[in-house]
């Protein structure tokens, strides 16, 4: 009397199967996503647009799924935007005054031309410090030096 036999006995209910399948799908989807894709934002002097655009393509090719977004313009104007809170990850300026104005904690000279030095550094509030450093390393690499030279700059 207390024992059921017949149709469905000993088998999981349809609802339990649906729940198990949904749970498996969620677990697989969360494991496949990996890390969230990131966009690296680079502000740079307008005179760097050629070599930096080329280096941006190289960076994206070596970092599948990551992207680089550039803002090119007058170094002082870009520095002012950074100082006013515009979020960027890397700043490459023409001249020390613009770099100081941006608030970048550290920077280094990476190229020169007839009008002066170009400096590069991670922005003070970057959320993508690892990617910022990797982009800076690319600019300082042999590939970066070739791109700068092709643009008429003297790598340092």
From TrEMBL:
It comes from Planotetraspora silvatica. Transmembrane segments: none annotated. This is Molybdate ABC transporter substrate-binding protein. It comes from the Bacteria. The lineage of its organism: Bacteria, Bacillati, Actinomycetota, Actinomycetes, Streptosporangiales. GO terms for biological process: molybdate ion transport. GO terms for molecular function: molybdate ion binding. It holds the Pfam family SBP_bac_11.
């Amino acid at each position: 009397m207390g024992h059921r036999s017949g149709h469905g006995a000993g088998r999981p209910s349809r609802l339990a199967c649906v729940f198990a399948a949904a749970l498996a799908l969620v677990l697989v989807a969360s494991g496949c996503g990996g890390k969230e894709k990131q966009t690296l934002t680079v502000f740079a002097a307008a005179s760097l647009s050629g070599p930096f655009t080329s280096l941006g393509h190289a960076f994206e090719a070596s970092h599948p799924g990551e992207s680089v977004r550039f803002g090119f313009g007058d170094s002082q104007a870009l520095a002012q935007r950074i100082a006013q809170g515009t979020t960027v990850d890397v700043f490459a300026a023409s001249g020390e005054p613009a770099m100081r104005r941006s608030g970048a904690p550290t920077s280094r000279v990476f190229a020169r031309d007839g009008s002066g030095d170009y400096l590069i550094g991670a922005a003070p509030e970057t959320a993508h410090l690892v990617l910022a450093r990797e982009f800076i390393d690319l600019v300082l690499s042999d590939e970066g030096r070739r791109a700068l030279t092709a643009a008429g700059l003297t790598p340092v």
